[in-house]
TrEMBL record:
Family: Belongs to the PPR family. PCMP-H subfamily.
Organism of this sequence: Populus tomentosa (Chinese white poplar)
Biological process (GO), any one: RNA modification
Keyword Repeat appears in the UniProt entry: yes
Protein name: DYW domain-containing protein
Annotated ranges, domain DYW: 605-697
UniProt keywords, alphabetically: Repeat
Pfam families on file: DYW_deaminase, E_motif, PPR, PPR_2
Amino acid sequence: MGGNYRLRQLHSSCPIPTINFKSAKPKISYSSKKTSTSQNNKKLQNFSTTDSDIVKWNIAITTHMRNGLCESALRVFNSMSRRSSNAFVDEAREIFDKMPLKNGISWNGLLAAYVQNGRIEDAKRLFESKMDWTLVSWNCLMGGFVRKRRLLDARSVFDRMPVRDEISWNTIITGYAQNGEMEEARRLFEESPIQDVFAWTAMVSGYVQNGKLDEARSIFDRMPEKNSVSWNAMIAGYVQCKRMDMARELFEEMPSRDASSWNTMITGYAQSGYIAHARNLFDNMPQRDSISWSAMIAGYSQNGCSEEALHFFVEMQRDCERLNRSSFTCALSTCSSIAALELGKQLHCRLVKAGYQTGCYVGNALLAMYCKCGSIDEARDAFQEILEKDVVSWNTMIHGYARHGFGEEALTVFELMKTTGIRPDDATMVSVLAACSHAGLVDQGSEYFYSMNRDYGITAKLVHYTCMVDLLGRAGQLEEAQNLMKNMPFEPDAATWGALLGASRIHGNTELGEKAAQIIFEMEPHNSGMYILLSKLYAASGRWSDAGKMRLEMRNKGVKKVPGYSWLEVQNKIHTFKVGDTSHPHTDKIYTFLEEMDLKLKQEGYISSTKMVFHDVEEEEKVHMLKYHSEKLAVAYGILYIPAGRPIRVIKNLRVCEDCHNAIKYISKIVGRLIILRDNHRFHYFEGGSCSCRDFW
DNA sequence: ATAGGGTTAG
């Protein structure tokens, strides 16, 4: 959508001439404003084939045509079609159809433009529209199918080819190798008349990607004349298996290292948790490229060092390295993990400027960020902006809706997904079942569960059974839930019992809840979530002292809270909550928050807060209660103090003192009326409503 | 037109 928009803007500022080819000498008529010949000729002088502006290409072509220089126009077109970006492919096609003169290069160029932009169906249609294609075209089409993992189609192209060169062989070998069919890849490799370095490397890489390190190494060792790509493929293999010692050995041993070698090692160290090693390599490498930067941003982010990740994002620009899709993606992902909505929005603005928001990876990260921050409307918009939605896009949107209590919407998206030809995977079904659970749609959920194998070939895993236990349990069918647990082909794990415990809590079955909790404690003695759930179970049935005991026991056993879920993680849209709707995940979190606080205060010897009744209270009253409890928490921790009568949202300039770090690592953000506290000590201060990263820009 | 490095959800 963004691309089209940009195109429209370009059109309106600079009209594209249309050509009438019917007359012998091409005449040009203009869609709107008239541009003089001399003006166009002047523009042609400034035209360069490195130009990314489609309008300039069009002018170049039409000016040549007007001057009767069909050959020149053809040359321009052929250069253009080969490098068309997705937004311009249709433009290229339009001109292509009007060209009076086409040669093999034009046809190939258009075909390649389709293939490169993932439009394999268009490529196929074009290919079928004529007979005499060159070898390059055959190879190109086959490569397109391989990239789309459509092996059968690729093979049929390969079999139908009139002649084959080594590229044809290598392409089909790569196809099998990258799709786990190493036997066939090997057969073709041996059958191939020419085994060049591409073929050898494709085999090494194939074994690596299929986790067969020994086979990869044996091919690698037997390989004549290796180049750096081969070395890098082998190093990547060790990196994947977290064998950094072996990777390092090869890295030191290889005759000449290129940027890829360094980047592979950096990523390897970062993903194995050795972020300092990664940094060391990054600092010492001879020439960093944009991928090195992205790798570092991702590395810091994945190791919980959000601030450093964002610093690197900023530093990257200072180093004159242009921000690319990948760096945006990583930075957005970082924002997700710390629920930094304001910063995320700033990034959103910037990537719209860069025209990146329609990309799949970036779009998915943006969508996830909005979901994580509870901005479901913005999430939906981001979702719609993604041009080629993949399974992750759909899963994230469905999960986002389900998680925020919009079960019906989640299912609507799922129905839509089915019509697009993107196959739902097991993660999709988890979200779909969760959506049914939240919407109370037991029958529909069961239908999905029992038909997912038939419809999509997805075998139910334990996690799906756990969803079903949750679905039945939430709907009050505790008997059925237990029966399912007895009869399912897996042993229930702590999460399954947790679903039963949660259901018991909602429906006030203390006995069953206790039983489930007992089993969970045996399985996972340090599972903090279960202590909390059991405590909530007691609290729900009014057994406050038992609830308190659970908390104490948890503390005495030295159970650590799950990082990232410290105390409260609520989103910023409290006004959308339905009061008393216990199925709403936010309501759940508010309960947790208030109960935790209440107990904490009691344990710390503060005057007990009032018993919380959230059902049927007015919005205003709810806010008041939240404010009341927040104040108590503030006093208890000495972190912040809210003067009586002031709404919470006016709190600003919080500073977390050293003493509080053990209890709550820091306060990350204040959004609206709610406080988000997070277990992370990276940021030391914040201003209300925005995080300190704003200073970066 | 073929081989290697970074990025997305849970």
